[in-house]
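Hello Y.,

Per our agreement to keep a running log of every chain we model this quarter, I'm adding this entry. I've kept the format consistent with earlier entries: sequence first, then predicted structure.
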Amino acid sequence: MVDAAARKGVTLDINVFAESTHTAEEAAAAVGAELGQIVKSLVFVAPRGDASIEPIICLVSGPNRVDVARLAAVSGEPDVRRATANEARELTGFVIGGIPPIGHPRALRVIMDPDLGRFPIVWAAAGTPTAVFPVPPATLRMLANAHVAPICEERRQADVLAEGAGLANPPAPQNAGA
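Predicted structure for the entry above:
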C-alpha cells in the first residue's frame, strides 16, 4: 500500500495503534477526528456472466451508509451486493476492518462518497485493523483512481444535527475497513 502511493509520488504517514481502529467510531477516537473524517473502505461485488464477481470498493464517510440502489445506478451494475467477509479478503488481500483504499493485488473500481470532500484531512485504513493514515480527500481520490458520486443513503438534517450533538443513536456501524 505504501509502495502504491509512492509510485504516484505520495508518502503516507502510517499510524499504528495499540487499540483497534476496526470500526469508524474506534478509528475516530484513536486519531481524535470527527466520525465524518473516517474513510470506510466497503467492498461490494457485481456478478459476471461467467459466474465470477467484480469487486467495487466504496470509500464512504464514517457516519454514512451505502444505498445499494444508488450504487447500482452509479456503477451500472443492477445486481451489485455487499461482499461477504471471505470475498472481501480474497478480492482485496486484506481483512475487514483494515481494508485500505489502495494497494490491492489488482486494479479495482473505486467509488468515493462526496461527503469526504468536506474535510481537509480524512483517515483511511492502512491494511490492518490497528493502522490508519491521514490524507487530503483530493489525494485519496487520485491515489485510488476513484470516481466521486452520491452513493449513500439520504440523511435528514435533523438526524445529522442530533448525531453531531450526541442526542441520537447513530445507525449500526459499518466497519471502517470493510
